[in-house]
Amino acid sequence: MSDAITFAVILPAAGRSTRFAADTNKLLQPLDGRPVIARAAAAFLCRHDVVQLVIPTFNPDPIREALGPLAADTRIEFCPGGDCRAASVQNALARVAPAVPWVAVHDAARPLISRPLIDRTLAAAVAHGAAVAALPVTLTVKQADGPLPALVGKTVPRHQLWAVQTPQIMSRRDLADAFARCPIPLSQITDDTQLLELLGLPVMLIPGEERNIKITTLQDMFLANILILEPQSR
């Protein structure tokens, strides 16, 4: 990857952690002695090709405190969160300098992201226009209407199904255009590259990493504490 290629990072942090624990912000929880969001941010701030890191949030003070010494990095800025994830990303994108060619959106709740995965995603984005890390779906998936219990409609073939992770990296210009031309409400956008797909723009899937988990529940935090102590090559 050429040193001339630079990118900005959007780290959405406006979620309410409703599935984690009552009145607990999962991003502020310690993971091997360091807050989750600090680990996620550090994975990008250690890179010389990252020129901005924008954090959309409703309450920046606890996030700033959780970042610790990283908060002094002049590449970090905060912006208001939106009423859904896509709206938060849109708010952050408005803060990205027009001269920055590429934007990475990464879940602040994925603290175990590795440098090689960032490298691979960036390289694929530059080659194809947009890229996202993904893992094959290993469970059988059945389609049914309504909440359970419900009658099965059909079993969905899983060989063409992929569970996406982050980072998702794309052209800043394409993402801005996709927001401007989005044909559905932003509340219906569940994935950042979905915006590009709606315009017919190509998105490349690349192999993700099993350890790049998203912390959603207390069980996920338990698993992350185990993974962080394991050698990354395993």
Structure characteristics:
234 residues, seven-stranded mixed β-sheet, two-stranded antiparallel sheet, alpha/beta, Spore Coat Polysaccharide Biosynthesis Protein SpsA, Chain A
What features would you describe in this structure?
The chain has 234 residues and is an alpha/beta fold. The chain has one domain (7-227): Spore Coat Polysaccharide Biosynthesis Protein SpsA, Chain A, CATH 3.90.550.10. Helix content is 27%, strand content 24%. The strands form three sheets. Strands 5-4-1-6-10-7-11 form a seven-stranded mixed beta sheet, with helices on both faces. Strands 2-3 form a two-stranded antiparallel ribbon. A two-stranded antiparallel ribbon has the order 8-9. Helix 2 links the parallel strand 4 and strand 5. The longest helix is centred in the middle third of the chain and has 14 residues, at 115-128. The radius of gyration is 18 Å and the shape is globular. 36% of the residues are buried.
